[in-house]
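One thing: can you check what follows?
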Amino acid sequence: MFIEELDIEGVFMVEPKIFPDLRGVFLEPFSQPAFRKAVGHPLWVAQVNCSWSHRGTIRGLHVVGLPGQARYFNCAHGTMLCVVLDTRIGSPTFGKHLAVEVTAESRRALYVAEGLAAGFLALSEHVTVWYLCSSLYSPTTTVSIDPLDPDLNIPWPRDHEFILSDMDRNAPSLREAEERGLLPFYRDCQARYAELDAMADIYP
């Protein structure tokens, strides 16, 4: 398994090793030792989510208030465009985003640390996505950012009508979320990452 950090701190691409044979393929979508070595601490999993989406569906962009929620995305069927937005006020890359195509064929996964907003667009007719979450769903601390905010300039393909939840369609822009005090601070996220690294020493 190969894991590398991308252009936004706290975002890692995971490339599993695939073993094909006459029966099909075998792979490890997640390896705790490899993850811990690359990221600096284990991924403590509190919840596993799975979604099935029609083509054109956008889920997100969502960020959870600190202590936050880290997410480990994997595409089980189809193709999705996964987008991560740096919502950490004071971060060198605040307001920047990256977009990565993740497919069931490639078997790649994407890890998104606490304090970052993430979401995805279903590119194929149907897409099944599962993701490991470091904390339970918290509706009171989950913040949605308008994925179609023109100031973000996210390269969503425009060849299909978008399908969004009411929460995401009516979400504030990044600027509005910042003005309303809904976003985490980079310094607090850094402290949280250091805390997780320190906790790694007690992991069995």
In short: The chain has one domain: 2-192.
